[in-house]
Input
Amino acid sequence: MPAMYIDSHCHIDFPELAARLPEVLGKMQENHVSHALCVSVDLPDFPRVLELAEKYPHIYASVGVHPDYENTPEPTVDELVRLSQHPKIVAIGETGLDYYRLQGDLEWQRERFRVHIRASRATGKPLIIHTRAAADDTLRLLREEGAGSDAGGAAGVMHCFTESLEVAQAAIEMGFYISFSGIVTFKSARQLQEVAQAVPLERMLIETDAPYLAPVPHRGKMNEPGLVMHVAEFLAKLKGLPLDVVARQTSENFFDLFRIEEGNRAL
Output
């Protein structure tokens, strides 16, 4: 049986992928990508994310508001809790902090992040964390709000990880998984590759973040879930492991983190 992969973070509801969804789903099947998590970035577009998850058994979804979205309705804890009750909503997020794209007083971003952490604690559903140029504050707020299994809250995943090994280790100690995207395959990503070598496979996920960040050998093209296999292939070579071991363990990690029932694991 060929190795099976899971794309733990994609945006197949975005127009450029939604317009060719049958082809995208077909490519997933062709490349043995069994499941994908379609991640919410704002509340106005959440219905289309949920619609995909309801329509396709192998697609799951999250609910949340991305830190880059400044002019969008602010979520409340009660609203996130309510929307997350749907059985195909398996996570809270994408949430976190991004000091790279936005400047000035970003207290609104930190407050939005706190709201998501509180919703995660209230529901027991894991967080999908986006952090860029904000690692210290990201870890600080997670600790202050009692996120992570070490504090009795739900854990989650540091998605599209590009930070240092020290940040990865701190997140792992809190119960988080570390997810690697196509960035890890780039020749310029030597430091990130060293982090990936050090992160235990038992705490690792793979993702595309499609339609962005296509992995080598498709760098510069539109990304899609079917290409997540290249991330797994690169990590297997990097860590000196058989590909099927990386595929199997990252899939099991996905199922365990997002609490996918046994009956829904093999499709």
Notes: The mean pLDDT is 96. The radius of gyration is 17 Å. Strands lie at 5-10, 33-38, 59-63, 89-98, 127-132, 156-158, 176-180, 204-206. The chain has ten helices and eight strands.
